[in-house]
Amino acid sequence: MRCTSCGKFSLYILCKLCKIKLLRPTVTKRLIDGNFAVYSFYNYEEIKNLVDSKYYFHGDRVYKELSKISFAQFNPKFDTKISAIPIDDHTRHGFSQTAILSKYFQQPNIKAIYGSLRATKYVKYAGKDLLYRQKHKRNFEYSGESCLKVVLIDDIITTGLTILEAKSCLEAHNCEILFALTLSDAKV
Ligand SMILES: [Zn+2]
């Protein structure tokens, strides 16, 4: 097969060179809504074809490999139990990319909570402007426990609107949202 990143022949979905050198993540921080921190590992443009593999069946293997070199290495020190909540982790194409990212973020005191935060409306935001996004909200529903300390997990941050919507949904259940962690930042 070919490496999904560089296109060169490889036995794996991502070749060794890409994993070790080309896809070395750089953690960046973006503040949204004043002072809410969102950390990302990659610039979206640089790994666009990998992020977009979520629309294809081979995407689960791409996301697993990317998770190993990003989310699994990000090891914030918490002195309490933390919940990693993937944003809208329903399964399309046989897997959920946000569930995969959350799984690899787990540590002894970080536990992923799957299937608890779902958008009740499916809106495809790719290529849409802020106004469209503001008008077409995803209307999140949360079915998990209340009063958790939470890190929100997503594959991409564009305007930050989805993350803020997910955050306020969880806050309505008295959860404390510490920060969000996304695979890539599209920096609008
Ligand atoms: Zn490669």
Structural commentary:
By secondary structure, the chain is α/β, with parallel strands linked by helices. 26% of the residues lie in helices and 24% in strands. The protein has one domain (25-185): Rossmann fold. Strands 1-2-8-7-3-4 form a six-stranded mixed β-sheet, sandwiched between helices. A two-stranded antiparallel sheet has the order 5-6. Helix 6 (161-171) links the parallel strand 7 (149-157) and strand 8 (176-185). Bound molecules: zinc ion (ZN). Zinc ion binds at residues 3, 5-6, 8, 14-15, 17-18.
Shape: globular
Q: Let me know the largest β-sheet.
A: 6 strands, mixed
Our measurement of the CA-to-CA distance between the termini, rounded to an integer number of angstroms, reads: 34 Å
Strand-residue proportion: 15-25%
Order of helical and strand elements: HEEHHEHEEHEEHE
Alpha-beta classification: alpha/beta
The rounded Rg comes to: 16 Å
Poorly predicted runs are none
Quick tags:
8 strands, Rossmann fold, globular, 188 residues, two-stranded antiparallel sheet, alpha/beta
